[in-house]
Design a protein that fits this description.
six-stranded antiparallel sheet; about 25% strand; seven-stranded antiparallel sheet; 20 helices; Beta-Lactamase; alpha+beta
Amino acid sequence: MSESPYPGEVDLDTCAREPIHIIGRIQSFGYLISFASDWIVNHASANCEALTRRPAADLIGRPATDFLTGSALHDLRSRLQLIAGSDSVERMFDIDLMGDGRLFDVGLHKSARSFVLEAEPSESGRRRDYVAFVRPMIDRMRKADSVEGLCAAAARQMRALTGFDRVMVYRFEPSGAGEVVAESTAGDHGSYMGMHFPASDIPAQARALYARNLLRIISDVDDPTVPVIPAVNPDGDPLDLSMSGLRAVSPIHIEYLRNMGVGASMSVSIMRRGKLWGLIACHHYGPLKLAYSLRTACELFGEFFAYLLEQVDVDAAEERRTRATRMHDEIMARIASGSTLLSAFDDFTETIARVIPYDGIVGWVDGEFVSRGEVPTRERFIELARFLNTTGTSTVWATDKLSATFAPAADYTDCCSGILALPVSRNPRDYIVLFRKEWLHEVNWAGNPQKPAEFGPHGMRLHPRKSFEIWTEERSGQSRPWLPDEITVAENLRITLLEVVLRLADAASRERERASARQDMLIAELNHRVRNILNLIRGLVAQSRDSADTIDGYAEIIGDRIYALARAHDLMTQTSWEPSSLHALVRAEAAAYVGDNIDTVAIAGPDAMIEPTAFTPLALVIHELMTNSVKYGALSVPEGTVDLTVEAAPSRQLTVTWRERGGPEVQPPQRRGLGSIIIERNIPHDLGGEAAIEFRKDGVVARFVIPAAHVAEVVTGQNVQAVTAPPSEPIGADIQIDGEVLVVEDNMIIAMEAEDLLGELGASRCHVANSVRKGLELLDLHPISFALLDINLGAETSEPVARTLLERGIPFIFASGYGDSLNLASGFADVPVVTKPFSLKDIRAGIARRLAR
């Protein structure tokens, strides 16, 4: 039976007594010295005599200046200042430590109250800039478009860089077991490709060490190790060498490597979002010493490789979103034609099959059973549906071995071994269930995964295996696994089908049932919209990184874009998410910029009612055009103007032309930021329309075509309209607050922002409460002079606090995410409401309106 290519380094028999089994020993080709804060030597490796020409025992307790040069100490102290934490290692190359002309490569890290210096003889003039090799290696790997291709490229590149006979990419499974997913070998050394390894081969203690120390090397399995002197400090604790690059490994691992015929090995950890994803494991069939600079390049390569893995995942996630959106649109289009969920079953099952492969599918709606492909009988499915009712209602449920959790399924594993269940209603429970048939296959393990340990002279402990034959496991009663991508798409599909079912239920039920179904549909719709908005905002935050040179500038750009989304959202919610006016959108966006120049932006042509799905992309485009014009174009000077012309074709297709005049001479941008990308791509990508922009010297001209599918109605009779300007002075511009204030808000981030804004208005102290009880307590404890109340606090409202404030004559305003549709109790009709997201200007205006009443 074979063994892991890079098994655990932790002795299971001793790990309970020692956090790291091999503490206190070091590979003999390097030297270790430990310093305390007063620069007195605490520990040294036994071979330090070759470094300092003094026995290691004679170094203990001596000042470092006794054997290190002043310039070397100066450089070391400077690097110590840069150490970020206990898991950080600083590297220095070609350092003359002793002042005798010998050059060393040095690693520095912190260990408890000591600083550990590790020195290796430098390459003495043969050193190459291996780090420079990493960039072209990464460039080659960028061509891979899948995780498998990327791992294969990484194995090849690492072998070429290091010269190891075998390089493998080893990926951990959630259970801790692992699999070789890529391999590159020199000569005929057999193959580990596709081999699986039990979790005990690399125990949890070893995985935790790999997550901290990203590179481990054994240059020669026969190289003798040397002790650290003394073995413990005055407190009786051994020196923690977790971050050491020269630290020796467990004798068990050395014995294992010898059994394999391996003479040298190295591993580079692959970290994904702070977790150990896998290892780049390297074997050589003889001794192989890698220079410190080369090992540093290998570690850097591993970090870049992890970054590229993340990029591949991000691209895959974007593709999933695209496929899910396309599937949603196709299904909704079929249902919109008047079909019911089951009457259109054949059509939308074909749509699903293009995204999630399956062998059979069942629709179970209102007790009606419809199926296609290999599925259980109706009677068996009813029994299965009762089981599914216990698995939860708000997410998909998937398994590739149904019989393991639902015993009756053992009778029909041949056709239905795995299922993916999508609950599409709450009561009664309806489902769309995908089935996969049995997948008979073999899994090759490096040894019996059920027998990871053996009895030895010290009891039950891990022993290195001496046989390398493949142990084969035959698996039956199991389907092909449901991939994470498929489950993610299924969750989006569940939301779509939930929307479909609720929409159909709304059309078929009586008035009471219709109202209840509409409420559930709105919840699903809100969930869907909020996710889209959150994804959009996350994209704006990530893609706007390069749009400003300062943090304040970056925050201003992000804030402006989010406020543009909020203005568009307000226009849509005013019409209950129905089509909204294009003219109103332009006026709302422009009003934030034109000031007193009411004639600088004019709209010509008919108005159009834009569908909600198109309103947000269009709002971002108008916002970016307006922002760029104010900063660089026609609206940056008093005499500049913008003309926006709307033309409607008989088909309702719109052509919108933006033309700037009278501004500074235009120069094409030298750098394309997120704003330019939004202007040029948003409408073509999100709406399937057209966009073109010309940077003419006399002014920017942009032309957009909005397909008829996104235009609900063309409103004629509305021609040239100038934008309505806001007052020259913002409402409440001179408002200031004296004394202590109260903020009642259940969201910590929003509360912190409100606290900062009120501080800018002069509040001496801000008290924050997340509940009515806490708010009333603070009112009794402090002399509150003003309050900002979020009306909705989850399971309660802030009205009791508001009534108390009224009784005490303390002014306050409300904040809400409900906009103008908020229904306040009687007695609060005169209290201003600021709509989230709010700004300093909004709060000032709200206070001014409150004080005026």
